[in-house]
Amino acid sequence: MSKIIKSLILMLVIFPSLLYCQPKYLLVGGTHLDLGDVPNFIPSKRTLTIKNVGTDTLIITDVGSTCGCTATLLSQDHIAPNDSGTLSITFDAKRFEGKVEKRISMRTNDTAHIRVEIKIIANVIKLLEIEPEYIFFKAVKDSATAQTLTIKNVSPQTISILSYNTASDYVAMKLSSDDIKPGEAATLTVECAPKSSGTFNGNIEIKTDHEKASQLSIRFFGWAKDK
Q: CA 198, CA 140: separation in Å to the nearest integer?
């Protein structure tokens, strides 16, 4: 058998397999994500599963959103055949009210899904208004300084603060009222006495009795100088 004939036979065997060796993109649950009712101050998080049901590696690029309020994190951009990855989505609703629609887009090497768009809808409900959004301290080592945080109830029902705490041993807090009626506000006084100079940060964790706002986190930052 001549080399030419052998080459032709080899091409006839290999080319069909290459033709059918293709990645295939599948987003579990579809491209429409309804977050339902979300509070205005708590980031809403969802994790989507992306599967490759094809026979070649699925490559995902250019993942992005239409707004800085919606963050994305892809677990892996190369997904092997019969494997899957995750897309984590975080929607920050603090600047919205009512029905909101956002979109996330990406590109893949699946010729049937070169550009994919995911539609996200949410109904943002205002429950609490927190001012400021975070606390910043200018402190002196081993000296106490205080800042205040206002928590206003803009919902139609009384909201009770069940607990408030922080992991930082140099921060103490006092709340003016545990029960906040509609239209009223409570003041959280936060006192900081850093034990060393330099920068510091942490979280204040607040739990409430409202099912849509059971827990919220407030960041604090600071810089302490020596005496």
A: 10
Tokens (6 digits) for 179: 């029960």
Q: Where are the beta strands (DSSP E) in the chain?
A: 25-27, 32-39, 44-52, 58-65, 70-74, 78-79, 84-91, 98-108, 115-125, 128-131, 135-140, 145-153, 159-165, 171-175, 179-180, 185-192, 198-208, 215-225
Report how far residue 39's alpha carbon sits from residue 129's, in angstroms, rounded to the nearest whole number: 10
Side-chain-side CA neighbours of 128 within 13 Å: the count stands at 32
Question: For the segment 75-109, what is each residue's pLDDT rounded down to a tens digit?
Answer: 999 999 999 999 999 999 888 889 999 999 999 99
Which parts of the chain have pLDDT scores under 50?
18
* CATH code, residues 24-125: 2.60.40.10
**Domain locations in the chain?**
24-125, 128-225
Tokens in use for 80? 């092997």
Q: How far is CA 81 from the centre of its chain?
A: 28
Q: What count of residues does the chain have?
A: 227
Residues 6+ apart with CB under 8 A from 151: 128, 129, 130, 161, 180, 185, 186, 187, 188, 206
- pLDDT value at position 108? 96
State how far the Cα of 78 lies from the Cα of 25, in Å rounded to an integer.
Answer: 11
Asked if residue 23 has a cis previous peptide bond (ω within 30° of 0), the answer is: no
What is the topology classification, in CATH, of domain 128-225?
Answer: Immunoglobulin-like (2.60.40)
